[in-house]
Specification:
Structural class: alpha+beta
Largest sheet: 8 strands, mixed
Strand order of the largest sheet: 3-2-1-6-7-10-9-8
Distance between the termini: 39 Å
Order of helices and strands: HHEEHHEHHEEHHEHEHEHEEHEEHH
Strand content: 15-25%
Low-confidence stretches: none
Number of strands: 12
Helix content: 25-40%
């Protein structure tokens, strides 16, 4: 680690490393693929579109944000964490009406959507609450308590009720009881606890345990550094709980006809990674159950999908749309007047990626097709990805949810019928592209604006509030 203010540069150790036989051997073994305009074109296709009148009337967009607030004057490194989740409701009929009359007035656009927000303040590094024995225990307790007190809708279930429903779906998938969440505080070897009790006790009976301990996020919690991973996993888990909470609300109030006219879009992939990855399988089961009920009552399944704004799939899509020019003579710059830059995915075309395509072109693995490796995303995804070039030119990595039995059964294939409501989703994306940012959609731009935590302005207010110098709710 450098000293504060120390400036870096090319060091002798780096020169020795680059001259070493090991570095040269590693470079010789590396697999690096650069797609070019001369490469084999991917199997893109055009999907017939539904009647515009059959498209959803309402889009619900979900996005979250997080921040860390150092606590000056507290124990060394002490900090709190803020998590915000926004569910934005956009009336597409009003939006089309405004767009038909030209560029929407930003003041008018505010009238086109409503927002339900969920905000959490969590203890993080070296911040101990009440009689809790350590910061990790305070973090575990607050996660349980805040989920039990937050609802997306006033007459809906709490996020904790949604979570414990998903937890119950996990029963039978694993016989092994998790380790004691007290971790290094627990003096007993191989201590276990039953994770399905709302509030239980550890094996020795001395400390409380919570149903949310089954998320295992506490395992990422550290006493000696910022808890970026633990807070990010918490924010991500809550985003997915909000999605399921909204879908269960339709069932709770028998709003089946409304479910048919609503599209739910999540910022990010329909996947849960890290310690709470098991949630993905439970969410897949729950969405399939709700979709089956919706199918029985309305004749169609809901429209649920994610949009991945960055990452390897989006990078690959950008390369397909803007391929590297064909290589010329080594050492010579290509002539821009003659160079060929043919897009490998044209406006209106979609690429449905299967497992073999992913492992060959995006997340490289030697083994493609049937083999010892599990299909990409089989244990953490509840949807499958597709790459789309909208008719307006935007490049979108989308991910429709698995909603029917068998949607996830053949990840080695990728057929239109395996992507629920794909024609509807593509038509929505064509209509909802935003000019505000490259490859952006209006619902997620609005949702992000509602959930974002401006780092400096809000951190100062929160820091003063935590020191007791500022009352809550002060507007500035």
């Amino acid at each position: 680690m450098p000293h504060e203010g120390e400036r870096g540069g090319v060091t002798g150790s780096l020169r020795r490393l680059l001259d070493s036989p090991e570095a040269h051997a590693m470079r010789a073994e590396m697999h690096i693929e650069t797609p070019t305009a001369t490469g084999a074109p991917p199997p893109t296709l055009r999907v017939p579109r539904p009647d515009p009148e059959a498209l959803p009337h309402l889009v619900i967009a979900i996005d979250g944000s997080e921040g860390h607030i150092p606590l000056e004057g507290g124990f060394p490194g002490a900090e709190a964490a803020v998590v915000t989740i926004a569910a934005v409701f956009i009336d597409l009929r009003k939006l089309r009406d405004v767009e038909d009359r030209g560029i929407p007035d930003p003041r008018r656009f505010k009238d086109l959507h409503g927002t339900e927000g969920i905000e959490l303040l969590l203890p993080s590094t070296n911040l101990v609450l009440g009689d809790d024995p350590d910061a990790r225990s305070s973090f575990r307790r607050k996660v349980y308590e805040v989920l039990g007190s937050r609802r997306v809708f006033d007459d809906g279930e709490t996020l904790l009720e949604t979570y414990e429903t998903l937890l119950s779906l996990r029963e039978g998938r694993s016989d092994k009881l998790p380790g004691c969440p007290l971790m290094d505080l627990c003096p007993h070897e191989e201590a276990r606890y039953h994770s399905h009790a709302a509030i239980g006790a550890c094996q020795c009976g001395e400390h409380p345990t919570y149903s949310t301990d089954a998320l295992r996020i506490y395992e990422a919690f550290t006493d000696v550094a910022t808890n970026q991973t633990a807070v990010t996993e918490t924010r991500s888990a809550i985003e997915h709980l909000v999605l399921v909470n909204i879908m269960r609300y339709f069932e709770r109030h028998a709003l089946w006809s409304s479910m048919r006219t609503v599209a739910v879009v999540m910022d990010g992939p329909l996947a849960v990674s890290g310690h709470p990855a098991w949630l993905a399988i439970s969410i897949k089961s729950e969405l399939a159950r709700l979709a089956e009920l919706c199918q029985e009552r309305t004749g169609t399944v809901p429209t649920v999908f994610g949009i991945e704004k960055t990452g390897m799939f989006q990078d690959h899509l950008l390369r397909l749309a803007h391929p590297v020019p064909e290589a010329g003579t080594p050492g010579e710059m290509p002539d821009p007047r003659t160079v060929r830059r043919t897009s490998l995915i044209n406006p209106g075309e979609v690429l449905l990626v299967n497992d073999a395509y992913v492992k060959k072109n995006i997340i490289f693995k030697h083994e493609v097709g049937p083999g010892p490796f599990k299909p990409y995303g089989s244990t953490s995804h509840y949807g499958r990805k597709a790459l789309y070039h909208t008719t307006g030119g935007a490049l979108i990595t989308l991910m429709p949810a698995f909603l029917r039995p068998g949607d996830d059964a053949t990840l080695s294939e990728a057929r239109v019928e395996q992507f629920p409501n794909l024609p509807v989703i593509l038509s929505l994306l064509d209509a909802l592209v935003s000019d505000r940012y490259p490859n952006a959609t209006i619902p997620l731009v609005v949702a992000h604006a509602e959930a974002a935590i401006p780092a400096h302005a809000n951190a100062g207010v929160l820091r003063r509030f935590l020191r007791g110098e500022e009352p809550a709710g002060v507007e500035r």
